[in-house]
Each structure stands twice: as C-alpha cells, then as structure tokens.
Predict the 3D structure of the following.
Amino acid sequence: MPGEHRGVGVILTNADRSRFVVQRKDASHPRYPRCCSLFGGACEAGETDEQALVRELFEELGDVSADEIVAAGLRAVGAFKLGPRPFRFAMLEAVLPDPRLDAIASRPVFEGERAELVARGELTDLPWVWTLRDAITVYLGGLG
C-alpha cells in the first residue's frame, strides 16, 4: 500500500533453532530503553525487504557480520502488523553455525547497546520493542 510504513528484521539462529542473537537497545532509547529487537529497520522508498535488511545489517553490524549473514541466506518467515500505530514488518531468518552466532554476539554493534545471545526458551520472556513478542511467538510456533 503506498505510504505505508514498512520495516524488516532478521532472526539470527542456529540449525536446530535453539540459540538466537538479538539486539539490545540503548538505555537512552526514547520509547523502548534496554528492550530487545531484531537487527533490521525501516524500508526506504523503492527498497525490497531484502535490500532494506542488507543495508540495515551493514549499518548496525558492519561489513564482516553483515556479509556473513547475507552469505548464510535469508529466508522470509512472516509478515506482521506491529507497533502502536501498526506498520508492516517482514521477518527473515538467517541460520548460522554456533561459532558464528557466538562471534556476532561478541562483536560491537553500531546501533543499540549490544548483541545478545539467548536460548530459545528465553525469547518470549525478553522485553521487546513494539509488539515484536507477538511475531516472535508466531515464529516459534511455526518451528514445531
């Protein structure tokens, strides 16, 4: 729909979907201090979801991590309406080996406070931005 706000994020996980890397927002975030998010952001005019995600990954994680995530392959896993003023949010997934998840979680991030490695059972208990917990719950339910 023209003029609709669109966003995209990637859920970073391992092959058995037991570990995930999420982004912890800064304590100074105006609406969601220290809450969690997926790496990603707003889509600019004319961008596909994947194009926006690649751009956001480079902005948030830098060349090495972004290249690694893109090379792993991105799979669309859902589209959601999120937020107090709902916008369309596309969630993609990248599956990486455990040592790569550990490496991404230990590197500095350029937006937010840090990357954080969490177990599957912890995902829905995290304080999420917008209504992202709802999308995470749907994603986890689809894993069986």
